[in-house]
């Protein structure tokens, strides 16, 4: 098998952060000698998450077995997910926003034995529904997945997003998929069958609403720069840990110039 040098579009700060977690984990468990040191193990995991490299390619590039590459990646995801913020902790930052943007996106998956919960009737494919909260500039703040068959509003309610945003009194803009959310969530006017057409004022409000809401697409685009999310080829139940791990790495990368 041929090999070639490549790059990962991340800073050394992110690599060092993950390497520190791996090093602490090894020290706590008094791990024996391993094929790769914490830095190389972290690089392998980042190549999988950011570039979407398969375990076979990683094993060849890092001169380890496929099973070892899989184990290193899973260990890194576990360590990152363990320090990820839940919604309650994320709300501390969300409360300080001028307003928030709520949106959902589907991450495709391979078919599984229990297909029905993961089939999205809207997208006509299997996947997981990831709910995303962004700030006014479109920066990714928090995200969490659910089975793809769940409607956006249902997924947001299951995660407790609607109640949390309403309790914090954070003005939130969302699309028509969240009609009926109420609380502090604002959705555009929707024309219904056998009802009068929208007035000029309502159309103007919808246009202004769309301009604000469109910035939330940046957060979804940011999430999908992690190529592993192009299509999850693992058990969809691992999607939560993967998204949590990516959120931790994203915040480390986004804050690399802070302080």
UniProtKB/TrEMBL annotation:
<dbReference type="InterPro" id="IPR027806">
    <property type="entry name" value="HARBI1_dom"/>
</dbReference>
<dbReference type="Pfam" id="PF13613">
    <property type="entry name" value="HTH_Tnp_4"/>
</dbReference>
<dbReference type="GO" id="GO:0004519">
    <property type="term" value="F:endonuclease activity"/>
</dbReference>
<dbReference type="InterPro" id="IPR027805">
    <property type="entry name" value="Transposase_HTH_dom"/>
</dbReference>
<keyword id="KW-0479">Metal-binding</keyword>
<keyword id="KW-0378">Hydrolase</keyword>
<dbReference type="Pfam" id="PF13359">
    <property type="entry name" value="DDE_Tnp_4"/>
</dbReference>
<dbReference type="GO" id="GO:0046872">
    <property type="term" value="F:metal ion binding"/>
</dbReference>
<keyword id="KW-0255">Endonuclease</keyword>
<protein>
    <submittedName>
        <fullName>Helix-turn-helix of DDE superfamily endonuclease</fullName>
    </submittedName>
</protein>
<feature type="domain" description="Transposase Helix-turn-helix">
    <location>
        <begin position="35"/>
        <end position="82"/>
    </location>
</feature>
<feature type="domain" description="DDE Tnp4">
    <location>
        <begin position="102"/>
        <end position="250"/>
    </location>
</feature>
<keyword id="KW-0540">Nuclease</keyword>
């Amino acid at each position: 098998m041929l090999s070639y040098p490549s790059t990962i579009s991340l800073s050394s700060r992110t690599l060092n952060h993950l390497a520190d977690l791996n090093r602490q984990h090894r020290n706590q468990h008094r791990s024996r000698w391993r094929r790769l040191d914490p830095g190389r193990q972290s690089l392998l995991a980042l190549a999988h998450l950011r570039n979407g490299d398969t375990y076979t390619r990683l094993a060849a590039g890092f001169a380890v077995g496929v099973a070892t590459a899989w184990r290193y990646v899973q260990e890194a995801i576990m360590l990152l997910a363990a320090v990820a913020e839940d919604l309650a902790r994320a709300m501390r930052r969300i409360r300080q926003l001028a307003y928030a943007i709520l949106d959902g996106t589907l991450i495709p998956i391979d078919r599984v034995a229990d297909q029905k919960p993961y089939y999205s009737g809207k997208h006509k494919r299997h996947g997981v529904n990831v709910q995303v909260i962004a700030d006014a500039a479109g920066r990714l703040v928090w995200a969490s997945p659910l089975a793809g068959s769940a409607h956006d509003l249902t997924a947001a309610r299951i995660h407790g997003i609607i109640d949390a945003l309403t309790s914090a009194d954070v003005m939130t803009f969302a699309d028509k998929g969240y009609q009926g959310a109420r609380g502090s969530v604002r959705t555009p006017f929707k024309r219904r069958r056998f009802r009068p057409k929208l007035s000029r004022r309502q159309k103007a409000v919808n246009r202004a609403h769309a301009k604000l809401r469109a910035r939330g697409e940046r957060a979804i685009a940011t999430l999908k720069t992690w190529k592993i999310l192009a299509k999850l080829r693992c058990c969809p139940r691992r999607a939560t840990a993967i998204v949590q791990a990516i959120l931790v790495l994203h915040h480390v990368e986004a804050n690399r110039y802070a302080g």
